[in-house]
Design a protein that fits this description.
Layout: H1 2-13, E1 21-23, E2 28-31, H2 37-50, E3 57-60, E4 63-66, E5 70-75, E6 81-83, E7 86-88, H3 95-108, E8 114-120, E9 127-130, E10 143-149, E11 152-158, E12 164-169, E13 174-177, H4 181-184, E14 185-189, E15 199-205
Antiparallel strand pairs: 1-2, 2-13, 3-4, 5-8, 6-7, 8-15, 9-14, 10-13, 10-15, 11-12, 11-14
This protein binds 2-oxoglutaric acid and fe (ii) ion.
Binding site for substrate: 61-63, 81-83, 133
GO biological process, one term: DNA alkylation repair
Cofactor: Fe(2+)
Length: 219
């Protein structure tokens, strides 16, 4: 598979690839030091200010509940996305989002056209088990997921065998998900009982089949 070869080369040939490790049948690459500590700290502050953060409500057991994190959806104007039952309408790119996109486009060899920001304010914020397998992303999507701030556990489990993997996501690290990862594995970001600082995560995606919303969920 072309992308795996390209990423293997990136790990061996590039300082940003240092310590890179493949997981999940070679469909996930973890790069612990994609961004320097200083860059990661600066990006955290910029992203906290620049993005249009919202705490969305979703329907659960017939009730409207707040999701346990802040979220923001930015990208090209046509990058409509339905996620967790929410119609996401893209906000404009910001300087920090464009800066990160440029680096990730180069590494992944793609043109990401949207990004989902997740801001976990403390250890009580989390994301449940899911796969990013929406039709809008097409088959075998490439998703680049960058972490800034508090180190958190990222858990993966195989859909049929139940095999589990846990990766500690450092500040400045990057995860690349590709190939059949979303088809065969789910992932989650569990809560933690330990006191924790904030963490901002950016998952860059390519919307190939935009889902135009019927009604805006943005005021
Ligand atoms: O915060 C993370 O590392 C995971 C985010 C995620 O899985 C998603 O946005 O789909
Ligand atoms: Fe995800």
């Amino acid at each position: 598979m072309a992308i795996l070869k390209k990423l293997q080369r990136f790990v061996t040939d590039n300082p940003q690839g240092q310590g890179g490790q493949f997981y999940c049948d070679d469909n996930l690459l973890y790069l612990p030091q994609c961004f320097s500590e200083k860059q990661a700290r600066e990006l955290y502050s910029k992203l906290a200010m620049e993005l249009r953060w919202r705490q969305e409500k979703i329907a659960m057991f017939g009730k409207q509940v707040l999701i346990p994190r802040m979220q923001a959806w930015h990208g090209n104007p046509e990058s409509f996305y339905r996620y967790s039952g929410l119609d996401l309408i893209p906000q404009a790119w910001t300087p920090a989002l464009l800066q990160v996109r440029q680096q990730l486009d180069t590494i992944a060899g793609t043109d990401f056209n949207a990004v989902l920001g997740n801001w976990y304010r403390d250890g009580q914020d989390s994301m449940g088990w899911h796969s990013d397998d929406e039709k809008a992303l097409g088959r075998y999507p490439v998703i680049a997921s960058a972490s800034f701030g508090q180190e958190r556990r990222f858990c993966l489990r195989h859909k049929s065998s139940g095999e589990k993997q846990t990766i500690l996501l450092r500040s400045g690290s990057l995860i690349l998900m590709f190939g059949s990862l979303q088809e065969n594995w789910q992932h989650s970001l569990p809560k933690s009982a330990k006191p924790m600082q904030g963490r901002i995560n950016l998952t860059y995606r390519t919307i190939v089949h935009p889902v135009k919303p019927k009604a805006s969920n943005y005021e």
